[in-house]
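sorry for the late reply, my laptop died twice this morning and i had to redo everyting from scratch. anyway the thing you sent over, i finally got around to it. pasting the sequence first so we're on the same page, its 272 residues, then the predicted structure underneath. double check i copied it right bc i was rushing
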Amino acid sequence: CLSTMNRPLRPFIALPLLLTLISASSNGLQNEVSIKVEGDQRIITANGIPDHPTGQFPGRGNPNRIGPQQYRFTIPVHPTPAAQPTVLKMHAFGVAVNGVVLDPGAAEWWKGDPASGWQFEPLSGAIDLGTDESNAHVQPNGAYHYHGMPTALEARLTGGKKPMVLLGWAADGYPIYNAMGHKDPMDATSGWVELKSSYRIKQGTRPDGPHGTYDGSVVADYEWVKGTGDLDECNGRTAATPEHPESEYHYVITNQFPFIPRQYKGTPDPSF
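ok and here's the structure:
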């Protein structure tokens, strides 16, 4: 939810206690990310430079140039569910393993008015935000961020051989995976399927605001319908993962709305 165009960025897997990745990006800048566990916290520091090729920035639909950031996120190693889901507001949902933030929302509103409640969905095609093939673009302060599946990162991590792969962590500490999962959620030996969200476009027409038929142009066009997909209202499920074949709760980045989740199962850390 870090803004897309006109708002500045504020800033389980058994990984090694310290992971440092430094690699060249397509923009001549160096990706730097450190992931370490201290006690019950996972500490992620990064400069936000992607470790894969990107679209052209500045470019059509996005006038901003990628630049280094100073991120420091702290998340629980052993997250716990809250009494009720927490709705994501205007900040990042989580951070990818390469230190780039996962930010599904856009600071783009009907008639430019946040008070209207009608927020445009950045991947609907209703507005041109200049996203690249990794569903990402750049903030005015140079922050490159993903609005949907980070396809180049996913391709690098899977290498065409791993159907399911850890992409990052949410602000509440739960892990985030790509859209693949086991047919039987609790059986790590079962086959693979693409997981679908349980969000659907509403029927009928909007009562006010932009009016017209619900078509997915704005976030409020969608509703969660239990049982219509594989995932809960937080776009997650409890199931076997490569890191926890006995099962764990995790989020999924889907290829349809909400793409990156819009609600937290647990309590997001203030560092986001």
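The two ends are 10 Å apart (CA to CA).
thats about all i looked at so far, will dig more tmrw
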